[in-house]
Amino acid sequence: MNAEKRPWWQRIRWISAFLRFLGVWKSPESTKSATEPEPLPEQGLQGNMLGKSSKRSKRIAIVSPKGGVGKTTVTANLSEALVGRGRRVCAVDLDAQNALQFHLSADPVKPEGLASATLRSEPWSETLRKGVEGLRFLPFGFLSEKHREQFEQTVVDGPAWLADGLSTVDHKQTDYTVFDTPPGPSEFQRAAVEMADLVIVVVLPDAASFITVPTVERTIESYAGQKANEFAGLYFLLNRMNEGRVLCRDVRAMLADRLGDRLVPETIRFDAAAEEALAAQQTVMAYEPDGRAATDFDGLAAWVEQTLK
Ligand SMILES: Nc1ncnc2c1ncn2[C@@H]1O[C@H](COP(=O)(O)OP(=O)(O)OP(=O)(O)O)[C@@H](O)[C@H]1O
Ligand SMILES: [Mg+2]
């Protein structure tokens, strides 16, 4: 549905959510909490934490060599699509931009997240938040500049920080864990790839994405190299596909030729509803469940289930 045709009450919510997102308008609760992070004790992660479980969820890392290609959109919508298929999902934001929470919840933003919990040596379960029924998510959270530097050092120093943090979240309630990552190579991308059963590289149907393929293959394979052999593999997902454009069709054909069956057979089509959904602090699965992108994300979820069977 076009934004102009939506009822007035939905458009008001859309506009206020968008203003809140931009920081132009803040609700009273969010103003204090988002701008004034609590002081943190000066300590690092202390080894293993509580609640380890032997049964673990299937893990999916969503990565890309370039920014703005749709990683967070894919993380949020794949998570909700898996929930729509009866799965229990935990989405994890490993990007300091903190965008994932704006897709998954319209609740006021809080500064707490996995970063502050790690620095305080607190269990991540304390910062776990609820999305739709069946979906939980871990926001990255907001840190002062000093604490951000401390956290990045912790990540570099202790490669187990992600496994340790996740071990505090009850895996019996989770079938799939989906990691959103920052663009390009980083310790966060490395940590997600090292833990993943499946790595999905999001690419756009353009020349700029195509030329990054060899580099990203080398980076991800070097990160994944140290992992056990249950790794289902490295796949590329085409997002924002426009069938009407010759260039998009050509790049898709070149990617298929170059990647073979490592190109995910499901493609996410360009859909303006995906952009509107973020402005309304919703996934496109919730915003326009019968739309193009929502249909494609459901297809992607079915492919993920099949691939990680
Ligand atoms: N299939 C799609 N159709 C239309 N717009 C889309 C689609 N997928 C993503 N977008 C839009 O593209 C923009 C970038 O998406 P997103 O924030 O998910 O990218 P990202 O890779 O996570 O960015 P970053 O590298 O900054 O983390 C957003 O405005 C989003 O709404
Ligand atoms: Mg992102």
TrEMBL record:
Spans annotated as Disordered: 29-53
Gene3D superfamilies: P-loop containing nucleotide triphosphate hydrolases
Protein name: Cellulose synthase operon protein YhjQ
Alphabetical list of InterPro entries matching this protein: Cellulose_synthase_operon_BcsQ (IPR017746), DNA_Partitioning_ATPase (IPR050678), P-loop_NTPase (IPR027417)
Pfam families referenced in this protein's UniProt entry, alphabetically: CBP_BcsQ (PF06564)
Residues spanning the membrane: none
Coiled-coil annotated residue ranges, if any: none
